């Protein structure tokens, strides 16, 4: 059953924008969406309702943090046999506790389709005539949104908040000494396995996992571990499977189920990442929230049960703070 629009609109005034638990949970690192606290070998990740696009924080979306955290928990459990991950516990709808790992300083972006609207997207580059993208040679004659001959790992650098991530390649990563060849190749094999698993499950749920981003770390034994999030609407692009062929035949964009909706709204306002972004109207925030909730239900096959309690009070109670 679709989520109540009145509930979404009421929640616009009660979103989780920021947290401050450093006194109890250790030093805080504030990312675009997640507030992370590290203490005694554990990382407490509070997934806020903040939304980012074009590497900018734009505002908040009702229930977004709950949706992202619970989708990540679903995928971490589902892919546990494919790749080890950091999860220790999920004590609150917005909170995940994981092992603290040493992050690999690369964002592992895997792309399965020739698509995107940003200035750095694979489609933008291809449309300009570029045929080598992040070290991968692309054939002529591909159409927008077409499936690539094989999924490609297109790594990016990890920028500070407010700065843009930069496209790179295996060759550049190795030349700069960011990581060694063995670690890079092991990471590539791991993320391609995860992407294949994600695509197979998504197809069973009537979706296409188009592209995604993985964060990896090294545990105390030097083993690669999946951290942060996995296959959520913030790190991934999903299309509806049953509309894809019709969209390709008609030359239109496939129907998306992810935050591409917000990116497209911003692009329609003339914003593509430079300068001050326009504020998100509540109608846009609610529609984005509806899509996030629908994504959760389609991916997991379970109904989303929103928690409307004041989030900061609930988190303190569930963490025993």
3D structure, described in words:
The protein is of the alpha+beta class and 321 residues long. The chain folds into 2 domains: 5-101 and 279-318, Phosphorylase Kinase, domain 1 (2-Layer Sandwich); 108-250, D-amino Acid Aminotransferase, Chain A, domain 1, CATH 3.30.470.20. The chain contains 10 helices and 15 strands. It has helices at 5-11, 22-25, 64-78, 122-127, 170-176, 181-204, 241-250, 260-268, 282-300, 311-318; strands spanning 28-30, 34-39, 42-47, 50-53, 56-60, 87-92, 95-99, 102-103, 108-113, 132-133, 136-137, 147-153, 207-218, 224-227, 236-240. Strands 8, 9, 12, 13, 14 and 15 form a 6-stranded antiparallel β-sheet that branches. The chain is globular, with a radius of gyration of 19 Å. It starts with a helix and ends with a helix.
Record keyword descriptors for this entry:
D-amino Acid Aminotransferase, Chain A, domain 1, Phosphorylase Kinase, domain 1, about 325 residues, alpha+beta, 15 strands
Number of distinct beta strands: 15
Arithmetic mean pLDDT: 93
Query: What is the CATH level 1 assignment of the largest domain?
Result: Alpha Beta
Residue share in β-strands? 15-25%
The name CATH uses for the topology of the largest domain is D-amino Acid Aminotransferase, Chain A, domain 1
- Could you say how many structural domains there are in total? 2
* Cα separation of the termini: 35 Å
Q: What is the fourth-level CATH superfamily of the largest domain?
A: ATP-grasp fold, B domain
The appropriate CATH architecture of the largest domain is: 2-Layer Sandwich
Report the uncertain regions.
none
Query: What is the string of SSEs from the N terminus onward?
Result: HHEEEEEHEEEEHEEEHHEEEHHHH
């Amino acid at each position: 059953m679709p989520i109540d629009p009145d509930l979404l609109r009421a929640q616009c005034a009660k979103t989780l924008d920021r947290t401050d638990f450093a006194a109890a949970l250790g030093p805080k690192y504030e990312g675009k969406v997640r507030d992370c606290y590290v203490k005694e070998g554990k990382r407490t990740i509070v997934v806020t309702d903040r939304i980012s696009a074009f590497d900018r924080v734009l505002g908040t979306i009702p229930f977004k943090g709950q949706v992202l955290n619970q989708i990540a928990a679903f995928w971490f459990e589902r892919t546990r046999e494919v790749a080890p991950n950091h999860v220790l516990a999920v004590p609150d709808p917005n909170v995940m506790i994981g092992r603290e790992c040493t992050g690999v300083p690369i964002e592992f972006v895997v792309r399965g389709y020739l698509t995107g609207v940003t200035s750095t997207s694979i489609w933008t580059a291809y449309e300009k005539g570029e045929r080598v993208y992040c070290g991968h040679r692309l054939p002529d004659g591909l159409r927008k949104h077409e499936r690539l001959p094989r999924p490609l790992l297109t790594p990016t650098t990890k920028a500070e908040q407010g700065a843009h991530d930069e496209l790179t390649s295996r060759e550049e990563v190795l030349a700069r000494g960011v990581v060694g060849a063995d670690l890079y190749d092991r990471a590539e094999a791991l993320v391609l396995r995860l992407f294949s698993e994600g695509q197979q499950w998504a197809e069973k749920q009537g979706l296409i996992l188009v592209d995604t981003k993985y964060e990896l770390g090294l545990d105390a034994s030097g083993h690669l571990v999946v951290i942060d999030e996995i296959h959520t609407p913030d790190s991934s692009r999903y299309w509806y499977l049953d509309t894809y062929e019709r969209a390709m035949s008609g030359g239109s964009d496939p129907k998306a189920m992810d935050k591409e909706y917000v990116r497209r709204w911003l692009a329609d306002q003339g914003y593509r990442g430079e300068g001050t972004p326009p504020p998100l109207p509540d109608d846009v925030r609610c529609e984005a929230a509806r899509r996030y909730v629908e994504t959760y239900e389609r991916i997991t096959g379970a109904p989303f049960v929103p928690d409307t309690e004041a989030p900061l009070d609930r988190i303190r109670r569930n963490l025993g703070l």
